[in-house]
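Translate sequence into structure tokens.
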Amino acid sequence: MGDPREPPEGTPEGGSGNEDEFRSVVFDESFVRAARIQELSARERLAGSFGKATRHRVRLGRLGTVPRQALALLLLILLAFGAAVYFGISSPKGLPARPEGSQLTVSLVALSPASAVHPVGDPADPFAALPTGYGDGATGLNTPAGASTEHFSRVEVTKALDTVQRYLVASSLSPAALVQGATADVRSFITPGEQAEFDASVTQPVDDRHHATTGWVVRFDPAQVALASDTVKVVGAMRIDDVDSGTLQITTDHTFVYALKPAGAPAGAPVTLETVRRQLTFQFDRVDLASAQLRLVDSVLQAGPEPCGTSMAGFLQPVLATAQGTAVAPPGAIDPGNHARPAWQVCGVLAGS
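Result follows.
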């Protein structure tokens, strides 16, 4: 009886009959154990579900030869590009460009005394002759309570008013700014788009309507002027407006009265009152509100007693009274036909003594 491992008709001619030559096509035991065999149920067999042994392949033409990973990457790129185009077209305006460059316009008006400048009667109480209505420092700013506008909420308006008030304190009431030459605190309130203009105004002040330091901050030359009192008397008000749906505007109009004396003068030296009116226009977008910064777009300053013809771009130049009084030349006549003189450089006459 033949070996059951041999073929029924014997070993093929030329073959060794050795099973080794089939070893390369025989599945080993581990492969067989790992194979998953799923037997169809009786219902599936009756339904003939096993009749379809193949599935149709989707014909992709030339793309059929591209690897799947490359197709997936290409699809993602197309989706991202489509989304960018869609949102770019569907956004009506996109994000507005932040203002840059010279945005502040400054007008400086010296107020010349109509007669000799005399000191206050009592240096210990320099503001005794002021009319009623003036408050001490920030109290006199009369900052209103925040109220919503058409485009800005009460919280946003309140934050803008708080930023303006703190700016006015830093730029009009702080002794460091008034007579010590400090500008860092004031600069911290300025938006990045205006900081270059501010820096140029401080380093090279000039009355060109854009680069006067005194358009940003009230200050006196520390080598010439000192405060006779740290108290500053203030009266004025603020107004709130919407410029458009994205711009909030606050206009301030205040009069500040400073008690001054010559730098280095002893206690009891003659004290002069300097009156400064500042009308300022501030604007905010929502980025400014979030960062508690502001854009100062217009600054009008009147100050007296000041001599006409002296630049106020770097420092205010108050006429300081002596015990006998200080005489000042009256303002000269202005010739409207003289185009060599800038039209905005004017000098007025200070009312009162």
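Note: The two ends are 145 Å apart (CA to CA).
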